[in-house]
Amino acid sequence: MSRTLDLSLTAFAPIIWGSSYIVTTQFLPNLDPLTISFLRALPAGLFLLCLVRQIPKGHWILKVFVLGALNFAIFWSLLFFTAYRLPGGVAAVMGTLQPFIVIFAARGLFGTPIKALSIFAVFVGVLGVALLILTTDAELDMLGIAAGVLGSCSMAFGTVLSRKWQPPVSALTFTAWQLTAGGLLLLPFVPFATTELSSLTKMNAVGLIYLGLIGAGLTYVIWLRGIKLLQPSAVSILGFLSPLSATILGWLILNETLNLKQCVGMITVLTSVFIGQYALRPVKK
Questions:
Q1: Helices (H), strands (E): how many in the chain?
Q2: N or C, which end of the chain has less CB nearby within 10 Å?
């Protein structure tokens, strides 16, 4: 498969992640972040484990738990905490730090050269996301900002280490391992959650099944496959498509407004993605 097709397939992951906002607000408004993270990770991970019927062994056990913590347990917990402490636009902009961190982490772990054009592409992407969803009346909260930065670091290092630690298994199996590990790491904290599991509704179940199997299981199979075949930096820049997708879905499904500034933001985000992929294209010898 060509690099263009690999990039196109990998892009579906952040595009689908853009639907998480609608699903969370419409199907899971009564659940707290910890409960959502736990019920999104562990059931989906166990379901996928039943499909692949393979568990990590030896040194892969520790590595999988580290990745499960970075990509799911820590990242999702901080992501939801940030969303609660900061306006949605600010929280989304905080998430755009990931490509920056991935670029420099890849340099440290792989010796990948840092290209000025790729840094420029990330700056353009941040600007695009800001135009897309940031409002002038957004208030800042230091705890929310700290959680946003730490969450971005967690996902960024999870992305880079998922490339460095490649077990001899399929992307589906690798996803099953990480999701299960992330869910198990969250399990001890479930008793401290504010949501009573007995209060779950059928609508909650539908939302959790979607977030677990589609928004996590399917998308991370695609994401991890992309990380394996492409540079982590190239994959992380595709993450800018998530807030773009969320904005379009909010307009189509929730009848949210779409103004000129947001349209400019969409074009800017797409431009940043194209610039980033051009900058990170393999050099022909």
A1: 15, 0
A2: C
